[in-house]
Amino acid sequence: MKKLLLLNFFIFNLSFSQTITTITPSDYNSSTFTNLDFLKSELEQVKFVGLGEALHFMGETYTAKIKMVKFLHEKCGFDVLAFECPMYNMNILNQQLKEGIANPDSISKNISGVWNTTEMKELFNYIVDSQKTEHPLELVGFDESFFSVKANYNLPKDFSRFIDTLERKSQRSFKLDSSFYNAITETVNRCYGFSKREPADTLLMHHKFRNINEALKSVSYQENTYLNFWKHMVDNLQSVYRKNYGTSDRDKQMGINAEFLGDKLYPKKKIMLWAATTHLLYNTESIEAYRESDRFNKNKMGTYLREQYGNQYYLIAFTPFEGTCGFKGYLGLGKTKVKSKKGSLERFINTYYTSEYAYISFRNSLLAKTFSEQVFKSNITWVDGISYNGDEMDIYNVADGIFYIKSEHLVNQVP
Q: What is the rounded CA–CA span in Å between residue 55 and residue 133?
């Protein structure tokens, strides 16, 4: 029996060595990824590529994802980068980029705070520079949330313009007064807070949104990009205030928003999705913690996209072997130690390969038998909420590609 186990391990190790692709420091630093040229054909029919980070505030993961964005944009034809950021706000920022108004600093200040770090400056500079090329990189968002109302992001004012258009087309009047606009303003301003909306506000929005949705259907809003966009804003607002009652489904709404980007706004373009891996997962039943606990919402954005697009949705999970993630200060409370336990994919790679970066493609047919019979622990997603120790999973059915990083480090936050 012992000899048989050793033979099986040897066969697995041999098969594994034929499917892992190491990345040299020079290829990594230049974003050329010569050894990953096979992704050109592997992603040829793919519409969405998810770029997942196990946690936010992961310095080397951010850097690796930026390198991959450049590679996918320049070599694989992905011309849209969609962040886990408010769809409404990022749409305005994208227009400012096209008009030459936005710069790297304005992107940094108008993106979710978890990505307002010095590591991200490389990406923001790249996005701005790309606007002068034949293939500018579009920067959009797919989150249902909203940033606070201010001069350049005045949702109530823009919502009022949408209502004027809808009233003309549907020949209806919604009689929206200051109490309604105050309600959506408060919903937007407290979007990232813990305070609940007043029941009177949510009831008012519920009735008005129902009337608005009826009017949208009457004018076939799907055929009008502007009205279709604002239909999603209505749904996003509704999902946000439904957090009051525990009936919102952020992951599903993000999936619907991404579908709108893919099918309506950018039907002829390929899209990268930058988010936490937990949102991009499409088979949580293959992860022990998700399978055995009621603490986790098992229906992820990635699940929705996989159902809608099949193999046209491709998830790359970035995962570190060791190091520390988080940020400095706060008496060390913002730091999380990365540990790769015995039996983890990360430890296996580190044991047999000296490269600091590597890639594994699960779309590679050689891996089908090799990995389908193996169960690993892995750090690809943070699951226990306390320490970062990895979790047991059928990893072949969890992601399409794994980007391995040997050492993780803290981010440097922009003051």
A: 33
* Start-to-end CA span in the chain (Å): 60
Q: Are strands 376-378 and 391-393 parallel, antiparallel or unpaired?
A: antiparallel
Domain count, the chain: 2
Please tell me the total number of residues recorded for the chain in this structure. Answer: 415
Q: How far apart are CA 315 and CA 390, in angstroms?
A: 18
Residue type, 43: L
Interacting residues of 341 by C-beta distance below 8 A, sequence separation 6+: 347, 377, 389, 390
| Chain centroid offset of residue 340 CA | 24
Residues 200 and 106 in one domain: no
- Residues 6 or more apart whose CB falls under 8 angstroms from that of 171 comprise none
Distance between CA atoms of 95 and 226, rounded to whole angstroms?
14
pLDDT digits (tens, 9 = 90+) for 260-316: 999 999 999 999 999 999 999 999 888 888 887 776 677 899 999 999 999 999 999
Residue finishing a domain among 249, 280, 312:
249
Residue range 172-222, pLDDT digits in tens: 999 999 999 999 999 999 998 888 888 999 999 999 999 999 999 999 999
The label of the residue with tokens 């029941």 reads: 199
Cα separation, 140 vs 134, in Å, equals: 18
Task: Report the C-alpha gap between 57 and 408 in whole angstroms.
Answer: 10
Give the domain range for residue 179. Answer: 155-249
Interhelix angle 87-98/225-241, rounded to 10 degrees, is 140
| Same structural domain, 125 and 11 | yes
- Assess whether 162 and 79 both reside in one domain: no
Query: What's the CA dihedral at 45, 50, 51, 57 to 10 degrees?
Result: 170
Q: Span 397-406, mean pLDDT?
A: 94
Q: What is the DSSP string of 167-223?
A: HHHHT------HHHHHHHHHHHHTTTSSPPPPHHHHHHHHHHHHHHHHHHHHTTGGG
End of a domain among 232, 249, 266?
249
Q: Same domain for 268 and 319?
A: yes
Number of other residues whose CB lies within 10 A of the CB of residue 126: 18
> Both tokens of residue 248?
């919102």
DSSP designation for 263? I
Could you give the CA distance from residue 281 to residue 361 in angstroms, rounded to a whole number?
16
